[in-house]
Amino acid sequence: MSTTTTSEPVRIHAARDKQVRNAAWIGLALQVVTTALPLFDLAFFGTIESHVRAAYPAWPSSEVALDRDAIAWSLVALGVLGILCWAATIWTAVRGRAVRSVVTTLFVVATCVGLTVATLGGEPYETIVPVWLGTVTVVLPGFAGITAVVAAWRGGRD
């Protein structure tokens, strides 16, 4: 009779963690896309600039450009934070520890921050971020986030 010992712990929720990892990889990819969108807008589309110009029609082009750049780069910074959160989610699912708490906490915090940024208004703005960009920034990664949370809280049977 022989017994085998392994140095690795038995993964009770390996299937669940794999589902969370898969959702997180998709979320990471969608987050990269949404992080790049403001930069594509700066380079090609110009909707942020049009949005700023509509709010401040009397501003000179230099002032519009400053506000446009501030909006775009703040969205890029938010996207980079999202990328870091997806990386933390993947790392947590690989480790297999505290998956539910990490995934749920990051989803709630990211959703609150994203919705705040997407709906924040100012005196001349109905919303500071153009509606299409705010919506895409929240919704695309949000779908993957919901999927990751559901996967984390499922029964966990292997």
What are its keywords?
158 residues, 5 helices, elongated
Short description:
The chain has 158 residues and is mostly helical. Helix content is 76%, strand content 0%. It has helices at 14-45, 47-55, 61-95, 99-119, 131-153.
Descriptive notes:
The chain is mainly α and 158 residues long. The chain has one domain. Helix content is 76%, strand content 0%. It has 5 helices and no strands. Helix 1 runs antiparallel to helix 5, helix 2 packs across helix 3 and helix 4 packs antiparallel against helix 5. The radius of gyration is 20 Å and the shape is elongated. The two termini are 28 Å apart.
Reading the helices and strands in chain order gives HHHHH
The major β-sheet equals: none
Gyration radius (Cα, Å) is 20 Å
- Which stretches of 5+ consecutive residues score pLDDT under 50? none
Strand content: under 5%
Shape category: elongated
Helix content: over 70%
The structural class is mainly alpha
**How many helices?**
5
**What is the rounded distance between the termini?**
28 Å
Number of strands: 0
Tally the structural domains.
1
Report the mean per-residue pLDDT as an integer: 91
